[in-house]
Amino acid sequence: MSEPSMSAAQGRYRPLFAGILLALTVATAARFVADHYGAPVMLFALLIGMAFNFLAVDPRFKPGLEFSSKNLLRIGIVLLGARITTSDIASLGLSTFATVVGLIALTIGTGFVCGRIFNKQWRFSLLTGGSVAICGASAALAIASVIPHNEKTERNLLFTVVSVTTLSTIAMILYPILFTVLGLTTSQSGFLVGATIHDVAQVVGAGYSISTDVGDVATIIKLLRVAMLPVVLVIIVLALAGQRRGGTGSVRLPLFVVGFAALTAINSLGLLPAVAAKAAVDLSGWLLVVAISALGVRTNMKDMLQLGWRHVAMVVTETLVLLILAIAAVEIGLAG
């Protein structure tokens, strides 16, 4: 690279450095707490980040924080594709696959019904329903990237991440006890853990707390839900484009959605070495935590405190509906 090109690149990215470094510092602190105390890393990234909200309007930090919460987020979502292969999904069987897809659709639908009941906008309904249905905080971040933004978007996104992470942690403790009391088989317990707990880390924790076999099944079921993320994003993009254009015209998919699908395909074809896949997954985890940290810094606690009980009721209702539907699916023999 020539000197003028290097100088131009430095001039372009130098304003981002302080904000990215702040987000990375918060993410590192959150990782430390999570690793040493078994706490949800996403939750602590948000809470620690919010303590530095006074820096959000500082012109030295603002560009980097915006870059971290948007661009680094999308790169992290792309790299999530390295978690998944089509062979993992195929191993589940058609009935289980259809059941998981049905649960996702019904849970998102429940979000819209709850939105009507609790008088919330469709954006919030889609955000909470999608995050509960698919993969918690990661889904919330991805969905927020493709829906139109308004003045409540960041506040609602932060609330959704906090609530689904908290509920995932509670579920990680309570669901294994519940499924054991119900006298379920290994495959049934694995299906329910993977199909009902929001975040991947808590699915792994809950599944392997029952047994290794349950943990293995739960992880595959959870990865199927993660694999449905780009499908849901494409549907959202198409639906929004259809509304704006009266159902006509071409549609441009976000590049990170295409990237997610492409990386999944590459991994499924065996073209991605195991070492590279693991590195991509690890990097994805870090980037998502950095993005959440930046979002936390950009969020004012006063805005969060303005949220009422209806917000909480929506996410709890969606979570309970998903649990009830999944148990019903197991009881009638559709899965597990």
TrEMBL record:
Name the source organism.
Aurantimonas endophytica
Return the protein name. Answer: Putative integral membrane protein (TIGR00698 family)
- Keywords on this record? Cell membrane, Membrane, Transmembrane, Transmembrane helix
Main location group? membrane
Lineage top rank: taxon = Bacteria
Which InterPro entries does this entry report, sorted A to Z?
UPF0324_pro
Bilayer disposition of the protein = Multi-pass membrane protein
Report the locations given in the UniProt record.
Answer: Cell membrane
TM stretches of this protein: 39-57, 92-114, 126-147, 159-184, 191-211, 223-241, 253-277, 283-300, 312-335
Q: What Pfam family is a match, any one?
A: Cons_hypoth698
Q: Would I find Kinase among this entry's keywords?
A: no
Q: One GO cellular component from the entry?
A: plasma membrane
- Could you confirm whether the keyword Transcription appears in this record? no
